[in-house]
């Protein structure tokens, strides 16, 4: 596959949001989970990442599809599909609800959480794609703040990022 790259600038002035880009990446992970999926962000809220209010994603969820899917649910579903999910965030109470929900919903041997007080990077990275930029995975980051987010599929960027992330924080095994 030829590498593809798209940078978007989100915020109230642009009227652009990152929702569809993030949803597409997570749906791809539902279908074919990466061996390792990395989420790195100092601030994480259990944001809704898929709106299934009109049933567009019913086939992904089985017999009782939810109206929506939160980030912790999406990552847990991906971990149940075989991915080892790595989360690097700050050890701040703000991130607590998200982390508790993720740990409760995912198989324990498929989740690796690192808390780093100095983390400032914002990245979501699978086997052959990476989403990175200035956006925290929070309501403000996704819907209110002016942000710059780049999505790259194919090429060497994701592989290099996964190597760098594993070197910095290990793989939790």
Describe what this molecule looks like in 3D.
The strands form 2 sheets. This protein has a 7-stranded mixed β-sheet with strand order 1-9-8-7-2-5-6, sandwiched between helices. It contains 6 helices and 9 strands. The protein has 173 residues and is α+β, with helices and mostly antiparallel strands. The protein is 32% helix and 26% strand. The longest helix has 13 residues, at 19-31.
Level of helix content?
25-40%
Strand content: 25-35%
- The low-confidence runs, each spanning 5 or more residues with pLDDT under 50, are none
Dominant shape: globular
Radius of gyration: 15 Å
Class by alpha and beta content = alpha+beta
Please work out how many helical segments DSSP would assign: 6
What does the main sheet amount to?
7 strands, mixed
How many strands? Answer: 9
Q: Between the first and last Cα atoms, what is the distance in angstroms?
A: 31 Å
Give the strand order, joined by hyphens, for the main sheet: 1-9-8-7-2-5-6
- Can you write the helix and strand succession as a string? EHEEHEHEHEEEHEH
Could you report the average pLDDT, rounded to the nearest whole number? 91
Defining traits:
seven-stranded mixed sheet; alpha+beta; two-stranded antiparallel sheet
What is the secondary structure topology, with strand pairs?
Elements: E1 4-10, H1 19-31, E2 36-40, E3 48-51, H2 58-61, E4 68-70, H3 71-80, E5 84-89, H4 96-105, E6 111-115, E7 123-125, E8 129-133, H5 139-144, E9 147-153, H6 157-169
Parallel strand pairs: 2-5, 5-6
Antiparallel strand pairs: 1-9, 2-7, 3-4, 7-8, 8-9
């Amino acid at each position: 596959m030829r590498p593809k790259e798209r940078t978007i600038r989100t915020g109230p002035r642009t009227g652009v949001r990152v929702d569809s880009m993030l949803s597409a990446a997570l749906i791809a992970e539902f279908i074919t989970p990466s061996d390792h999926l990395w989420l790195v962000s100092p601030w994480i809220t259990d944001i809704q990442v898929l709106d299934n209010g009109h049933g567009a994603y019913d086939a992904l969820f089985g017999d009782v599809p939810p109206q929506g899917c939160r980030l912790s649910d999406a990552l847990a579903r991906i971990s149940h599909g075989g991915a080892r999910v790595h989360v690097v965030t700050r050890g701040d109470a703000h991130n607590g609800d998200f982390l508790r929900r993720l740990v409760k919903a995912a198989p324990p041997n498929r989740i690796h959480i690192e808390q780093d007080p100095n983390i400032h990077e914002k990245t979501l990275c699978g086997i052959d794609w990476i989403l990175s930029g200035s956006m925290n995975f929070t309501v403000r980051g996704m819907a209110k703040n002016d942000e710059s987010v780049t999505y790259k599929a194919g090429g060497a960027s994701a592989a290099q990022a996964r190597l760098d992330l594993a070197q910095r924080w290990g793989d939790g095994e």
